[in-house]
């Protein structure tokens, strides 16, 4: 006969075993066949910018509109090895709620690739037959069956609605705990590593891009989750249709150089992309006998500090809000960028360059010979070489910021030949042009070849277009040289840059069972 004390001990032991087996798939765990195990079936979509929550394009086109079309990412840029799924209960404001709800579920699930259905690295112009398609699928992944509740021991109430955050290629289970961590722990999270890469010179090899939710998602288990149940009683809640896709976007941006208008030539003293010069700007083709040979390109003012895990804007709804003409993405150091000295978190900052030779010593410097080699092996657009220069973090500017110190840009270095004379040193000048990257459209000024100390400090962001200069996640900033103007007696040759802002493309995972 079992004594009362022994019965208490047995009950306590069973409780411990159930608690220990709360989320484990372990054959030694006690089973109650009357309580079903629960799974969730999700679709994860990587954003191509065609959702409602677009990144601001700038003034051309107007804020919030599409940029210059989309571009299918390379396989290494789209690859997902696993996702962290975070569920929590909130009011209608979701992630922007004034309260700080507890996280009800934090799980990381590995994924395996099951196929591709789009051409990697394909560029589509805005307005083209493919430019607006939001349903292009580039890659599919699945985790296989994964539990979120077993034997009734779960914080998830399947009669309720939960808000969902998805983080790809970043396991947050070591820093977040179900039932203890708060939503604020996710909202305030910053990262300093948003992809895997050994060296800036190997940008074409970078992988494992961290991606995070683009918009605030909800999962209504009772009303929207299509529940299926097998013979054993196990239940699966399906949110696998496109209307319930959880949209994510890369935290990285991408800066490319496109050799449109140029020809690669290695017969010059230094190999490079050769551009014919214009005599006057209003002609449709270059007519000068002068040439400019681009020999090196170096991105500058790259944020090397931290980036918010989730996109943050500067209006009253700070997290995952849509960008508008008066509401722009901010980075963790935006508010501090109103001083007169460059923060130490910038790589290759112009204010710290003592001479032009410092550019070539920087690890972000690309010689045209090496760019040509990479482009020949990887990417061409309309028959012209395109090279990935770097994958920068978000770097945005408030209205009052001195553009000289903080705007991300590129330095274009090369030799200017008068009359295409490649042998007479007196008719060859080495020049470096500095250009800043805008969100969208052509540069608003032609750039002289100037030393850093001579840069035009009066060029600042306009109060009517906040953060018109800046790098924002999940965009491709494709830079090409539009025109090189002839050198005259009174004028130095100028370079006009054109910047296309492309959206990295979307792909969807196959159903993910959790």
Explained architecture:
The protein is mainly beta and 514 residues long. Helices cover 9% and strands 32% of the residues. The strands form nine sheets. Strands 2, 4, 5, 10, 12, 13, 16 and 36 form an eight-stranded mixed β-sheet that branches. β27 and β28 form a beta hairpin. The relative contact order is 0.19. The C terminus is likely disordered.
Any descriptors?
single chain, 514 residues, mainly beta, 3 domains, 8-stranded mixed sheet, 6 helices, 9% helix, 32% strand, elongated
Residue fraction in strands? 25-35%
Report on the biggest sheet.
8 strands, mixed
Share of helical residues: under 10%
Low-confidence stretches: 9-33, 48-66, 117-121, 123-137, 441-445, 450-458, 506-514
Note the total helix count.
Answer: 6
Shape category: elongated
Derived structural class: mainly beta
Distance between the termini: 44 Å
How many β strands by DSSP? 37
Quote the average pLDDT: 74
Rg, alpha carbons:
27 Å
Total count of domains: 3
Explain briefly what this protein structure is.
This protein has 514 residues and is mainly beta. Strands 2, 4, 5, 10, 12, 13, 16 and 36 form an eight-stranded mixed β-sheet that branches. Strands 3, 7, 17, 27, 28, 32, 34 and 35 form an eight-stranded mixed β-sheet that branches.
């Amino acid at each position: 006969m079992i004594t009362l004390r022994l019965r208490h001990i047995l009950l306590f032991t069973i409780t411990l075993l159930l608690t220990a087996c709360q989320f484990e798939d372990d054959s030694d765990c006690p089973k109650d066949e009357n309580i079903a195990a629960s799974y969730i079936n999700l679709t994860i979509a990587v954003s191509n910018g065609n959702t409602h929550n677009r990144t601001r394009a700038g003034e051309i086109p107007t804020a919030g509109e599409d940029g210059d079309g989309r571009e299918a990412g390379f396989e290494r840029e789209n690859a997902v090895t696993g996702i962290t799924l975070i569920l929590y209960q909130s009011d209608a404001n979701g992630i922007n709620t004034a309260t700080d709800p507890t996280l009800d579920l934090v799980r990381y699930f590995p994924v395996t690739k099951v196929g591709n259905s789009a051409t990697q690295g394909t560029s589509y112009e805005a307005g083209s037959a493919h430019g607006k398609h939001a349903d292009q699928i580039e890659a599919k992944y699945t985790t296989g069956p994964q539990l979120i509740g077993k034997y009734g021991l779960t914080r998830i109430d399947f009669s309720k609605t939960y808000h969902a955050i998805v983080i790809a290629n970043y396991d947050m289970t070591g820093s977040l705990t179900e039932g203890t961590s708060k939503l604020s722990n996710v909202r305030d999270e910053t990262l300093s590593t948003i992809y895997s890469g050994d060296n800036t010179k190997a940008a074409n090899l970078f992988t494992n891009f961290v991606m995070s939710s683009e918009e605030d998602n909800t999962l209504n288990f009772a009303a929207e989750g299509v529940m299926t149940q097998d013979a054993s009683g196990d239940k699966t809640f399906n949110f696998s249709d496109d209307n319930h896709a959880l949209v994510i976007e890369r935290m990285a941006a991408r800066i490319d150089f496109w050799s449109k208008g140029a020809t690669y030539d290695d017969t010059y003293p230094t190999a490079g992309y050769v551009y014919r010069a214009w005599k006057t700007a209003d002609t449709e083709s270059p007519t000068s006998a002068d040439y400019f040979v681009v020999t090196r390109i170096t991105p500058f003012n790259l944020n090397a500090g931290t980036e918010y895990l989730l996109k943050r804007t500067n209006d009253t709804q700070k997290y995952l809000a849509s960008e508008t003409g008066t509401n722009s993405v901010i980075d963790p150091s935006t508010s501090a960028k109103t001083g007169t000295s460059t923060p130490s978190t910038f790589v290759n900052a112009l204010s710290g360059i003592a001479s032009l030779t410092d550019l070539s010593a920087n690890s972000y410097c690309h010689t045209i010979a090496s760019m040509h080699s990479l482009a020949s092996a990887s990417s061409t657009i309309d028959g012209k070489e395109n090279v990935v220069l770097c994958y920068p973090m978000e770097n945005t500017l408030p209205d009052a910021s001195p553009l000289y110190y903080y705007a991300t840009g590129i330095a274009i270095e090369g030799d200017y030949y008068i009359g295409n004379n490649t042998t007479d040193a007196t008719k060859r000048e080495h020049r470096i042009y500095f250009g800043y990257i805008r969100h969208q459209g052509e540069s608003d000024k032609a750039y002289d070849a100037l030393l850093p100390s001579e840069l035009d400090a009066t060029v600042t962001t306009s109060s009517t277009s906040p953060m018109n200069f800046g790098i924002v996640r999940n965009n491709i900033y494709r830079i090409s040289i539009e025109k090189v103007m002839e050198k005259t007696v009174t004028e130095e040759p100028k370079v006009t840059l054109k910047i296309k802002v492309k959206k990295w493309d979307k792909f969807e995972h196959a159903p993910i069972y959790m």
